[in-house]
Design a protein that fits this description.
Largest sheet: none
Distance between the termini: 15 Å
Number of strands: 0
Helix content: over 70%
Radius of gyration: 14 Å
Strand content: under 5%
Mean pLDDT: 94
Low-confidence stretches: none
Structural class: mainly alpha
């Protein structure tokens, strides 16, 4: 596994953890809208980075 592939794997795992955190947060009846918005923004940033890295592999 190359360094870049390892980074992609790390980001994929982070993306999954963010999704799980968002889902858990939103299942709480008094979930924090600002926290969820920040998590979603981070998840999108990670997704964009993943796409950039994956496209550079091909």
């Amino acid at each position: 596994m190359t360094l870049q592939q390892g980074h992609i794997q790390e980001l994929s795992e982070k993306h999954k953890r963010l999704e799980e955190t968002i889902t858990a947060e939103m299942s709480n009846p008094d979930w924090d809208e600002i926290r969820v918005a920040a998590l979603k923004k981070e998840k999108l940033r990670v997704k964009d980075e993943l796409e950039r890295l994956r496209s550079s592999l091909h």
